[in-house]
Every structure is written in C-alpha cells, then in structure tokens.
C-alpha cells in the first residue's frame, strides 16, 4: 500500500527546523484533578517544543474514547495536569532536523496521548501512518474514527482470543464504536455474534450492522438468553468492556474451556475475586490492551494495513455519531458516558 507508508528511521543528532511560525500557546482539554465532569478544562497551554527526532502535528480531528473517563475519575493514574486524548489525524507543521521520513505538509493519523489539543509532538518512530496527500477533511475524520477502535477490535479477535468459524461470541456495548466494528469483523470470520445493547433503537442498529443475535439488557436476564441461544452450552468467548456489573454474567455465560476477555471498566473495575472461581470450567481470563499487540513494527504494519484495506474497500463501515468542537468535549463525555450515543464521537480541533 504505497499510499500508506509505515515509518521507521534511525535517530540523528541535529537541531530542530525553524518553528518561528508556530504559536507559543494553544487550546487544549486537560484535567488538573480527578473527579466529575467539572474537572475537564478547556484552556490555554504551551505548544510543545520538538527535539531532533520528533515532529509537530497540527491536529484536525481527535477521537473520543471511554478511556478518558478512567483518567478523569482516577481509575487509571495520570501525572497532573494531564492532557486527554488517544488518537488523532492532522498535518505535520514542523520536524526535527534528524527526521527524514516526514515533510512539513504531510497528512498523518496516529495513536498518542495529548491529542485533545491543537498541536501534539510525536516521535519520528511511532504508531503513525502517513495518509494520502489528497485526503479530504471527511476522509481524515473517518480515519480518526476508525484507528484506535478498529485496531482494538482487530487485535482482540486475532490475538486475545482467535475467533474461529462457528464460535459463539458474547460482547457488550455492541452499538458503540468498538462494538459496531466487532460486529462486522466477527460476522466476516463466520462467528455467531451475541451482541448486548441497552434499548431497542440500538438493537435495530446492531442488527443492521450484521449481528446474528441481539439482547436488549433492559428486557430480561442476559444469561438466560445466552443459554437459550447456545442450547445451554454457553459461549466460546466473551469480550467484556463493562467490568464490574457484567463480570458474573460473563463468567457464567462461558462454556467449559471458554475465554474471558476483559478490556473495560464502564461500570467500574471488577471486584477482586479468588482465582479458584475460574477452575470450575477451566476458564481462561485475559486483560489485554491494544499496545501489547502492536508493539513490534511488523505487527503495527500488518494490523494497520488490514484496517485501512477494510476501510478503503468499504468492507468495514464506521458510524460517526456526532462531531463536537474541541471546546465542547465535556458535553461529548456526558453523552458517551450516559449511553446516549452509538458509533464513534469525534472532536474537531480549531485551526
């Protein structure tokens, strides 16, 4: 894929190019404390200086993810002040003099912290992909919406638990960003999807995206319905992004030798439990995170190429629910965490 060049370059010891045209301050969203939505601040912050081996990216779009809530609430530790954000697309506006694989003006998509900002510095070697020079704003928004959650879904169904044809797979928050992507990828692999949503509108949406079975969690017991669907056997694997509230249901929904993939804390962290709970059915329990599967350059290249191929071919649909201005992130967070949204939320960065 010569439109998407994956980046690896040796470090050089040189000074940065002239960045006189770059402002000294920028608008960002950050937290100075942990707590409720009121700790989210939209304010001025210094534009970072780059070293010889870094680039400075002027962001155009950033993706909204549930992980920001974990930092805001103190579930995940962070050094304060902490700039939020995990993924973005933008344009290279400055580069260190040791950087040879980027030019000013290159359009890029990347995974990084501190993307809820007008500018982000980034190493020349990193989780970054060069986008086509003719990428429109709408195309860059699509890449933003797909990058983190698409790679999460791809790696989890290959590496956390390798989904096989005819497997029964239970997963939650199926109308969300990861959920809609996982729905499509599981169907593509020939698995039987059992998707959990919270209302009938989301049920209809997930069915439109290809889910075979959809359970509305507000209408009866999830476990009973899973056992009915599987003839009492249970599922081969569970992908659980909810955490505390669904742990027991997920555990009981698994068949003998099933795999429990826990990757979120939407309802709070799982309450500590004795490992002996896994023994009755020889359950495998995993707590993966995306970066563990894309650390090696070959893995990053393989998974990113696969994701971009799926997007370009139209085999993978990405639903962007709403685009908010950066200054309205607090409302985006409220909407996401109140389960009012479907698909992906995106922030548009002021230029």
From TrEMBL:
Among SMART domains, the record links this protein to: PKS_ER (SM00829)
InterPro entries according to UniProt: ADH-like_C, ADH-like_N, ER, GroES-like_sf, NAD(P)-bd_dom_sf, QOR-like, Quin_OxRdtase/zeta-crystal_CS
Record carries keyword NADP: yes
Keyword set includes NADP: yes
Citing just one GO molecular function, the answer is: mRNA 3'-UTR AU-rich region binding
Which positions fall inside the Enoyl reductase (ER) domain? 35-347
One GO CC term of this entry? cytosol
Pfam families of this UniProt entry? ADH_N, ADH_zinc_N
Q: Which Gene3D superfamilies match?
A: Medium-chain alcohol dehydrogenases, catalytic domain (3.90.180.10), NAD(P)-binding Rossmann-like Domain (3.40.50.720)
Listed A to Z, the keywords are: NADP, Oxidoreductase
The protein depicted here goes by the name: Probable quinone oxidoreductase
